[in-house]
């Protein structure tokens, strides 16, 4: 087991344990009774575990949808996927990644303790993704190990502090308070979504026609909406595959059956995500106050993006679909200019596009949701094209990072440190 694995497979690699420990310490500092200590710690861990279970179920369905789209439309290109490229980076740069994470966490806590930027980034896997990107970019510039460690750690620390800072004005408008911040490296995408949505004024909803009222009553439950939309998406994409191709991919099942099963899996995953988020927030936010009061006064926990879904599940679903549509438009543009084709990844568009959709809807209403989600999807699909040349120097020919911050920070770091070569 190398140094990266020791860190990533420890507390940082198990966010449920990390968050449970934080809840325990926070409640302990508040001198809560023993029963409350155990109750809060376990429910925090359970909440995050439910979120992971739901994300895995939804992600599995989305991976199958990606495969259906690729096979149906015969498109060959690069699908941004954080986990894949991070795994590749760890094979060659495990030690550098571990040292960058270590320095980054120390500097990040110092920033929270001694400056007015009081956000504590708690999304461990995104910390690992960013450290992997920084290691890859800095090593490709032939920097010695100690410079990679120091420079990468400082950039990681500031990224973890500044990402929640720039998104917080929009998160506050969604949640109505500063109980938590966004700890997810798609902050550029969220700011873009909120900025575009602010062009539209959220006024009173127009009166509904009788036909629309009947339709609305059918779709009153957002889980029904998610299931129906996903079913239609699967079925439509599957129609472009031969019957034999579908049976080969799904163990002989007909596309109709596959679409129904995958749609219910996806909706079930979303339901579990929302249940986990509600449980997690109800425990971690009050518990974190104990740490904030004693160790980092005024600190705000920065959490993963699905925490926004509960504020408008319907907007999250529509945001995902429109963001993905914007991504398809960007792919068509890339095909027309014969540039490297980025195939919009369904998973990043679901999580990042969903959270961006909630922000857009809460700020700009329906019009804001539609316009900003399309632009968001277009932007996060195009952005990886500027990062690919940097990663191709390392041999990562068909892999890249998905969310917007990785592209922006990767290019900025490369340009900045090129001056010192």
From TrEMBL:
<comment type="subunit">
    <text>Homodimer.</text>
</comment>
<dbReference type="GO" id="GO:0009401">
    <property type="term" value="P:phosphoenolpyruvate-dependent sugar phosphotransferase system"/>
</dbReference>
<keyword id="KW-1003">Cell membrane</keyword>
<dbReference type="GO" id="GO:0005886">
    <property type="term" value="C:plasma membrane"/>
</dbReference>
<protein>
    <recommendedName>
        <fullName>Ascorbate-specific PTS system EIIC component</fullName>
    </recommendedName>
</protein>
<feature type="transmembrane region" description="Helical">
    <location>
        <begin position="120"/>
        <end position="141"/>
    </location>
</feature>
<feature type="transmembrane region" description="Helical">
    <location>
        <begin position="183"/>
        <end position="201"/>
    </location>
</feature>
<dbReference type="Pfam" id="PF03611">
    <property type="entry name" value="EIIC-GAT"/>
</dbReference>
<keyword id="KW-0762">Sugar transport</keyword>
<comment type="similarity">
    <text>Belongs to the UlaA family.</text>
</comment>
<dbReference type="InterPro" id="IPR051562">
    <property type="entry name" value="Ascorbate-PTS_EIIC"/>
</dbReference>
<feature type="transmembrane region" description="Helical">
    <location>
        <begin position="222"/>
        <end position="242"/>
    </location>
</feature>
<keyword id="KW-0813">Transport</keyword>
<keyword id="KW-1133">Transmembrane helix</keyword>
<feature type="transmembrane region" description="Helical">
    <location>
        <begin position="341"/>
        <end position="361"/>
    </location>
</feature>
<keyword id="KW-0812">Transmembrane</keyword>
<feature type="transmembrane region" description="Helical">
    <location>
        <begin position="12"/>
        <end position="29"/>
    </location>
</feature>
<dbReference type="InterPro" id="IPR004703">
    <property type="entry name" value="PTS_sugar-sp_permease"/>
</dbReference>
<feature type="transmembrane region" description="Helical">
    <location>
        <begin position="368"/>
        <end position="391"/>
    </location>
</feature>
<feature type="transmembrane region" description="Helical">
    <location>
        <begin position="314"/>
        <end position="335"/>
    </location>
</feature>
<keyword id="KW-0472">Membrane</keyword>
<feature type="transmembrane region" description="Helical">
    <location>
        <begin position="148"/>
        <end position="171"/>
    </location>
</feature>
<comment type="function">
    <text>The phosphoenolpyruvate-dependent sugar phosphotransferase system (sugar PTS), a major carbohydrate active transport system, catalyzes the phosphorylation of incoming sugar substrates concomitantly with their translocation across the cell membrane. The enzyme II UlaABC PTS system is involved in ascorbate transport.</text>
</comment>
<feature type="transmembrane region" description="Helical">
    <location>
        <begin position="254"/>
        <end position="274"/>
    </location>
</feature>
<keyword id="KW-0598">Phosphotransferase system</keyword>
